[in-house]
Amino acid sequence: MGLFGKKKKEQTCSCGGACTALNAENADAAVKVLGSGCAKCNELEQATREALAELGMDTTIAHVTDFAQIAAYGVMTTPALVVDGKVVSHGKVLSKDQVKALIEQARGAK
Fold this sequence. Notes:
Structural class: alpha+beta
CATH superfamily: Glutaredoxin
Mean pLDDT: 81
Number of domains: 1
CATH topology: Glutaredoxin
Strand order of the largest sheet: 2-1-3-4
Largest sheet: 4 strands, mixed
Helix content: 25-40%
Number of strands: 4
Radius of gyration: 16 Å
CATH architecture: 3-Layer(aba) Sandwich
CATH class: Alpha Beta
């Protein structure tokens, strides 16, 4: 019998247990757009889709809207772009060409 009740549960994901089943599905996505779903976030997502199409990459894009998950990346200004788990841009809407350059740079640095 514990002195003060419940044991702490082990965390199984990087979000600290704040994710939902939908967000857990997107945990494996290589490219993520972080933001509330506003027009600027959607604009960045569209530019990212176009950039990936031009690069010939068949990569899943996840749109993360949960603020706890966004904060887990250390992002305080959205929209933000995450490539392979690394934040490559935050706080501004990028053009298709800017997104292409960031993806190529992130993928080439591996």
